[in-house]
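Note to self: keep these together.
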Amino acid sequence: MCSKFIQFFGDIHGDCINWVMTNFGLTSGYYVHDGLDQGEVFSPLLWRIFYDSLLYEVKRQKSVCGYRLNFYFVSRTGHVESQAGLTLFLAAGAFVDNTIWIGSSQAATQHILDVANKFFRLNDILINNDKTVAILINCRVVNLSLLISGMPISVAKKGEPHQYLGIFLFTKGLFKSSLAKAHLDVKFFANFVLKKTISNKQFSYLVSSVLHPIMNYRTQFSFVPPSMCNKWDTIIRKDLKSKFGLPLDFSNDVLHHLSLYGLKTFEQNQAEHKVASVVCFANSVGILGRLFAHKSYDLQVLCWHLIHPLSSPTHIGVGASNNFLAGLVCIFHDYNFSLGGIKANAFRLQKETPMVSVFGESRFVKCLPSLRHYGVAFVDQLQNRSGAAFTWATFKH
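Structure:
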């Protein structure tokens, strides 16, 4: 930060006197020694400078703190295999004073809380234990006990979602809780607008400008299956028909026509949002870009495609999945999109003959689990150096 900016802050806060407005007038003035004014435009910047020291210390102690994500994969070129990997370290996330601590064990999590507690005591910060909760994912500890400021932290019950900023965390992950909350939002919206005096155009506007952005935020890292999208569309269409006196058998095509009611479907909205998101992820140079690259790799291995599924989208091997990237492949295939320039690729195709070109698509899908299990992607892998074919027993051995 430049010296003039520091001087500017010093002039504002130096010898600062505050008064408090009450129903009986102003209180006596008092000098401000520390703290930030809530709502002040530069308070987030000062808070970030102040809070960054705690986040840095937790990250610095990564030998005992945090959670480590390890990605290992094998890249295949005919008979040649090469191994690569990536390790990501996650210990904390913060937005102003909303903080999430991530630990791989009870001991690691308690160590983070102890470090944070020293920081809070040093700066006279009180933690509200009523708003602090421990969420256990894949944890086998029966009676887990975590303390902060000497007080026990409540443990989330199994199946109970808890909100952190705009997302809902769940003992079994993110997808089910996000989808359940999104479903409640759709029902709440339908009941709310039913009581309002609005036109049909205003109804469509509220759906596209209020409800759809909420759905996009709730499900930004999840893929909503078509069955759930259709269920939400049914709720909104029924609500619209009931409110404006339309018969129940009124054509849905008219409701979704851009020049008439212009009601966008949830499936169409999801497709537009997810395509925009994946372009941002693919071009990100930060942790999101790295995670996307390696999740893309995992998806390619799952589908057993020689070309990355988002570069040449097809339903082969994807199956009915709620996986975010697998859902994206289906969207790209249905809308005839493709994404070029993806660096993460499980196979480097040179002059090898791919198995799918020999089997055909239908037979390849049937054989896909065995081919993936034994790592067979090319016909060349079933031949010796002289070109003679191995027997299946010899190959497995």
